[in-house]
Amino acid sequence: DVQLRAMMDEIARTKNLKISTLDKPYFVAYSLSDSNTVFASASLGGLLNSNRIHARQPTIMLRVGDYKFDNTNSVYTGNTRFGLFPIDDDYQEIRSQLWLSTDELYKNSSDQIARKRAALREIADPDTTPDFGPAKPERVLEPPSDLKVDLRRWEEMARNLSGRFVSHPGVLESSVVLRGIGSTYRLVNTEGTIIRIPEELATVDIRASSLAADGTRVWNHDLITELQPSQLPSEKELMSRVDQLAADVDALAKAPTGDEYTGPVLFEQEAAAQLMSQALTDAIRLQRKPIAPPGSNARGGDPLESVWASRVGAKVLPEWMSLTDDPHQSEFQGAVLAGHYDVDDEGVAAERVDIVEKGVLKHFLFSRQPVRTYNASNGHGRLPGAYGSEAAAIGNLFVRADETVPEAQMKVKLIESVKTAGLKYGMLVRKMDFPSTANFEEIQNMARDLQKNGYARTLNTPILTYRVYPDGREELVRGLHFKEFSAKDLRDIKAASDHSYVLNYLNNGSSFDLIDLSSDATTSSVVCPSLLFDSVDLGRTEEQAGRPPIVPPPALTPQ
């Protein structure tokens, strides 16, 4: 393994780095993600793009000082990425690139710790939390990734799947993208950790949108995430999903606009898992505020603090619900769990974490960045974080209920709640826009609504939302958004079903999780039953309507 040998030899040399006028490095880590990406995209039966891309992305961590105080966790901490490395297995060139990058980072780190010391002299009560947590050295050497994809076959599938939209002229925009990534992650550090693990991903991204009669955009998507291409649904099943997606978009374009609503809401299966994925992203981890001199503008602003930050030992869920993150599980009831892993990106062994037990908050997910009194990682450092540290991210998150209702009776429970509240109807959500495919205008609308109403957090847009009347009748509506909502509202869960849904998704560490900005992402899974809430607030979306097409579209089938 030329790459690993070059990394190990160079890390051995860096252990002795010392310039008399600069702080000595106490921790250095080299990681290299060697990835092969294959993708094919098509629209209306025509191939738009297909390609194979081979890239090597290095990340170098160099800390000067010691575990208690180093150059990170301040507004002066810089980037640890250094472009792309050569894809040839040239031992000398890889070592040269590592040496040059280390040299640059050493100089930057020495400047950063000096500026951090100066900033601390201006702070009356500085944070004395250590800057880096201890970790046992790990040695994991698995075979490199060997991605096997027949690109010609994928091109044919993309054409066939996207061509199904031809029979739905009401769908104005549509696309199908198949993507496979086979990556080998290598990591060595001065503590003695040596890691080589394969990381694979296969996705099918199906999207469609249209315009309602009033000119507002409606859309739907199907984002299928698996670990290997062989685990993706068959072409026949994918065609069925394309047809259903197109039918949903046609129905949304004809659906009435929803009204302001406060009352019981049932999140079914997929929507429940999407809700928990978003609400818990920030709630179950703690983020550290960087050191900055008084009056300075911290780059990127202060992190949004977890709403559960001060709730350890307190009730955060109904007493019959628990949360556990267990990265070691590879499947659930026959479904593959994309959040399965053995060691995180920092080379720390993954641990099962019981986050909430019978409604009471017990613990959080951590990387090696100490926060408050928590000084040790539990193996969840899986994403590039801010200010020189890794961010903790969900692995396999299990939402468990000791008291359940048969899945088929959840709608009955919703109707009972509606009658008790004296409402004309209740609301049922079957799909949300998570991970989000929102465009720029939709993101602006959401940000404007948050600012206008003083909300700190909310949920992504509900896509498939239905009014449920006391007689059981359902009516699809559009144009709604959630008002303020966060993990603190999870105490209002009234019931959970006896059947759980597995949501595999690409997690970029943001609670909004915009799918098209997930170049720095990891795979996560949330296993969750349907959830009935006692009261949720929904409002009408205020957006500027577009102008429907004036000229008829060209014929998509032979005349």
Which key features would you list for this structure?
single chain; 559 residues; alpha+beta; eleven-stranded mixed sheet; 7 helices; 21 strands; globular
Explained architecture:
- This protein has 559 residues and is α+β, with helices and mostly antiparallel strands.
- The chain is 21% helix and 32% strand.
- The strands form 4 sheets. Strands 7, 8, 11, 12, 15, 16, 17, 18, 19, 20 and 21 form an 11-stranded mixed beta sheet that branches. Strands 1, 2, 3, 4, 5 and 6 form a 6-stranded mixed beta sheet that branches.
- Strand 13 (381-384) and strand 14 (390-392) form a beta hairpin.
- The longest helix has 30 residues, at 91-120.
- The radius of gyration is 25 Å and the shape is globular.
- The N and C termini lie far apart (59 Å).
Spell the H/E element sequence: HEEHEHEEEHEHEEEEEEEEHEHEEEEE
Shape: globular
Task: Please outline the major beta sheet.
Answer: 11 strands, mixed
Oligomer: single chain
What topology emerges from the helices and strands here?
Layout: H1 2-14, E1 25-43, E2 46-64, H2 91-120, E3 139-141, H3 151-163, E4 173-189, E5 194-211, E6 217-226, H4 235-254, E7 261-267, H5 269-283, E8 321-325, E9 331-332, E10 335-336, E11 353-357, E12 360-361, E13 381-384, E14 390-392, E15 396-401, H6 410-421, E16 426-432, H7 440-453, E17 462-468, E18 474-477, E19 480-482, E20 493-507, E21 522-540
Parallel strand pairs: 3-5, 7-16, 15-21
Antiparallel strand pairs: 1-2, 1-4, 4-5, 5-6, 7-21, 8-11, 8-15, 9-10, 11-12, 13-14, 16-17, 17-18, 19-21, 20-21
Helix pairs in contact: 1-2, 3-4
